[in-house]
Amino acid sequence: MLIPVLLDTGASRNFVHPETVATAGLTTQQLNKPVKFTDINGVTSTVTRYCKLELERRGEKFKITALVHPIKVPAKVIVGITDLAEPKIEQLASAEELKIPEHLTVVCDVFDPKRVPLVQGGTHFTIETTGPLPAPAKPYPVSAQHKEEEKKQLQELLSSQRIRHAQNPVTAAPAFFVKKQCKNCHQLRCTCGKRDHEWRWVIDYRKLNAVTPQDPFPLPNIPATLDKFARYARYTKLDLDVAFHTFPIAEADKHKTAFVTDDGIYEFNVMPFGVKNAPAMLQRTMNRILAKYPWCTVYMDDILIGADNSTELKVREILVMKELLNYGFRVKLRKCRFDVSTVDHLGFILAPDGVRPDKDKTAGIRDFPMPTTKRDVQAFLGLTNYYRAFVPNYSAIAVPLTDMTKKDAPSDFPGLTGNALKAFDTLRLHWDKPNALAPYDPDQPVTLITDASDEAYGIILEQGGRPLVFSSGKFTATERNWTVTDRELFACVQAHKRFGYMLQGQVEWHTDHKALEALRGNLADTPRRVRWREFLEPFPFVIKYVPGETMKADAMTRHSAYEGGFGAIRTVLDEDRFGDYGRTDIERE
């Protein structure tokens, strides 16, 4: 029996209509626990049964599990985002005709692939240099396979007038190819064995960048963005098409972008990838356009719109699209997701239950090969550090690995053994069941929990018993000589420096150091404490003494790695007893 199917990226689950179940004679089963969900109209329903379905398209078959519910759409089966994320289903979905949502037809030109995107208003990208331009380079040798791709991309850039033949070249950067993620497992380091990689053609502007001053304009703070937007119920995600190429280059600076191939020397008419300060130019412009909308965040070419319901979201989508269209930007319809409850953003998933890491991104951590060089260890720590918010006691666990990357570490890589191997496996295998951080609610009180041992300090922020962040850090040699009171107070200061935006309202600070109860009225006996008191004065927290035996932050500071020096990795607190507190903050050290 053939049944029409709706592929819906806005649905978090799969559904099948009870009439279809009865007509097709499908077998249903009782759910172990009823499932509640809210539909696009805000109506909450409960489902108690499910069944298994087999989909087919162009000879390929896919099996899914669907909840039995009287869905109110023409199609009798809905396939949601969970199964659309599977590689085979994703291919099926991408084969469907891309359609602009009906309410966005008034701004449909923003999606027009034939329209050449170009920033309006006389904005030009300039390249300031502080020294002589690099001498022209010779072209890098390329394989026959890459040569064909190079010719293809050159032709596309010439025909779209993004580049031109160099007028009077005085410099020329070489070009080469870099490997992109495997199309099957979506990892740069292929973990599926198929090694089906695409290649990206890039220009080596390192020597030009060396004589270009840095534009200090900052990129958005990712942790703050996630905390702010996790509270929304509905999301729309937009992706700018060729965002860098939307900015024209000042005529006087075009010659600085020259690059060489076997076919000649070319220069850009628009802002190229790889040039220093191009990201700052894009971010500054997007901030100027969209910063007036507090429910919209932009990180380079990734735009996220949040709302409390679908009606509100549609209005906001139109406002953003009009701004982008007026300024000359183009949106890539294929990468957009409209009106969804769960969305991936900057490597994280924002969902009704909070923020969690994107499984596609953390798969590279789980499947990371055994490091055989110092650089391998650095690469592994770089991956895990980005998601350290979801790893209990990250700082202590990673000590044996970070020690191997120090400048004074042995030049001959000894390989991973003992504590280093345990640390590697602990961090690598953690991603089988990543936890979610609760979204921060500025209208609710916050509990700040800190603790300090001789070697480390721990920080927990929570609301309603659910953790917002879980942070830990090591004391320096100087800090380890401080008094217990100073070390305990230092943990509080660090919490307010890192997470001050979440500690502006009603805050209760829990500490197991009773002397700190007198903090507000008696903290001016040393210059260091005077500075700390001045820093903490604007924050309206109250202090509550909690005996050490019941302190949750103790687990972060009483780690065996800190006993008798760093390195010993043993279980401090059983994972089940640790409950929801298995988290660290998303931070850069």
UniProtKB/TrEMBL annotation:
<dbReference type="InterPro" id="IPR043128">
    <property type="entry name" value="Rev_trsase/Diguanyl_cyclase"/>
</dbReference>
<keyword id="KW-0808">Transferase</keyword>
<dbReference type="GO" id="GO:0016787">
    <property type="term" value="F:hydrolase activity"/>
</dbReference>
<dbReference type="InterPro" id="IPR000477">
    <property type="entry name" value="RT_dom"/>
</dbReference>
<keyword id="KW-0378">Hydrolase</keyword>
<dbReference type="GO" id="GO:0004519">
    <property type="term" value="F:endonuclease activity"/>
</dbReference>
<dbReference type="InterPro" id="IPR050951">
    <property type="entry name" value="Retrovirus_Pol_polyprotein"/>
</dbReference>
<dbReference type="Pfam" id="PF00078">
    <property type="entry name" value="RVT_1"/>
</dbReference>
<dbReference type="Pfam" id="PF13650">
    <property type="entry name" value="Asp_protease_2"/>
</dbReference>
<protein>
    <recommendedName>
        <fullName>RNA-directed DNA polymerase</fullName>
        <ecNumber>2.7.7.49</ecNumber>
    </recommendedName>
</protein>
<feature type="domain" description="Reverse transcriptase">
    <location>
        <begin position="159"/>
        <end position="350"/>
    </location>
</feature>
<dbReference type="InterPro" id="IPR021109">
    <property type="entry name" value="Peptidase_aspartic_dom_sf"/>
</dbReference>
<dbReference type="InterPro" id="IPR043502">
    <property type="entry name" value="DNA/RNA_pol_sf"/>
</dbReference>
<keyword id="KW-0540">Nuclease</keyword>
<dbReference type="Pfam" id="PF17917">
    <property type="entry name" value="RT_RNaseH"/>
</dbReference>
<keyword id="KW-0255">Endonuclease</keyword>
<dbReference type="GO" id="GO:0003964">
    <property type="term" value="F:RNA-directed DNA polymerase activity"/>
</dbReference>
<keyword id="KW-0548">Nucleotidyltransferase</keyword>
<keyword id="KW-0695">RNA-directed DNA polymerase</keyword>
<dbReference type="InterPro" id="IPR041373">
    <property type="entry name" value="RT_RNaseH"/>
</dbReference>
